[in-house]
Amino acid sequence: MINVKRLVLDVLKPHHPNALEFAHAIAATGPDCRVQVTVLEVDEKTETLRVEVTGSALDFGRVHEAIGQCGGSLHSIDEVEVCSDGGA
Length: 88
Prior knowledge:
Elements: E1 2-14, H1 19-27, E2 34-42, E3 46-58, H2 60-69, E4 73-84
Antiparallel strand pairs: 1-3, 1-4, 2-3
Helix pairs in contact: 1-2
C-alpha cells in the first residue's frame, strides 16, 4: 500500500474562515494530520496560501473536500511525498 505522507498545496480562499480556522478544518481530516498554513498574498477578497499537510496516511480526497467546504479552491499540488508500507 502506498501512503501519502506530505502535501504542499497552493490554495486560494476567501478571508473567512481565517487561517487558523482553515488549518483546523484540514487537520480534522485525519487522526495525526498536521497542518502549516502560510499566507503568501492578500487582496481585497481573497488570500493565497501555501498549505503543508503531513501525516502517516493522508486522505487527499478529504483534504480537498475540507478546502472546498471552507470556500477555498485548490490551484495546484506543488509537492508530494508518498511511502510504501512494504506490502504487495
